[in-house]
Amino acid sequence: MKKSEALMTTPTEQSVKVSNVKDILTYLAAQFPACFSLTGEPKPLKIGIFQDLAHRLQDDATVSKTQLRQALRVYTSSWRYLESTKEGVARVDLDGAPGDVIDASQAEHANKVLDESKAKAAEKRKAKIAEAKAKQATVAADKPAYKKMPNKKAPSPSKSTKVHQKPASAVETVTQPAPSLQKASAEHVVVGGKVLLKLGQSPMLATVLEIHKDDVTVQLGSGMVIKTRQDSLYLA
Predict the structure, then answer these.
(1) What is the pLDDT of residue 149?
(2) Same domain, 196 and 109
(3) Are residues 188 and 101 in the same domain?
(4) Mean of the per-residue pLDDT values of the chain
(5) HAMAP family this protein is in (predicted)?
(6) What are the φ and ψ backbone dihedral angles of 111, each rounded to 5 degrees?
(7) Cα angle vertex 63, ends 60, 68, to 5°?
(8) Contact in structure between 60 and 67 (CB atoms under 8 Å)
């Protein structure tokens, strides 16, 4: 057998590459469950965890180093991760072994980043609401005013003409029952999953961005980000 033939692999033996951050984090959580988690309170990561990941996955074609950096940046900047970065909590390595303890300055920095992130999210929500109101105002201004036309008086029948008129039957109003919504349990609420969020009378499709205990952050199709309770979500 030639050397080139010995190095060849079949398509089933090749690793399946992942392309987005969600899939990369899912892969890391599966490979290192004692280090990464997709739900609940995450464990603070060891400083220099990227080098450890790059070394452990150097022969794994599933993810590149660039993808690992991007995934770690998203993971460590999430609200639930920043909230778990508290003074006195030990950082963990890829195998979950505790290491250095978070000091006061590191905890303070994480809290500052968290506050800034929430403030930016609030500003984006305000901007989205203002944009939606402006669009509604523009539509209302462009809509032509309704002009009520005077009622035409029906001609009265002559005295010699008898008009036989049947009484109008009562029109029954049929109220269509609202579609029943099924509450989404914890196992159905996952990062990246689709759920229904009831705003007013109509449920709206949303994508789950973050999960922290009973608080869930979702994004509507319009791009608006909303933080709500898990018991306010329904199956899509």
Answers:
(1) 66
(2) no
(3) no
(4) 81
(5) ProQ
(6) -65, -35
(7) 120
(8) no
Region label for 225, one of left (φ > 0), alpha (ψ between -120 and 50) or beta (otherwise): beta
- What's the CA gap between 154 and 165, in Å, rounded? 14
Residue 187 pLDDT: 77
End position of a domain, from candidates 67, 97, 113: 113
How many domains is the chain built from?
2
12 pLDDT exceeds 50? no
Domain boundary among 53, 87, 113: 113
58-62, long-range: CB < 8 A, 24+ apart = 60/15, 61/14, 61/15, 61/17, 62/15, 62/16, 62/17, 62/18, 62/27
Residues 77-122: pLDDT tens digits? Answer: 999 999 999 999 999 999 999 999 999 999 999 999 999 999 999 9
Nearest-10 Cα torsion for 29, 33, 34, 39:
60
Q: Which domain holds residue 41?
A: 14-113
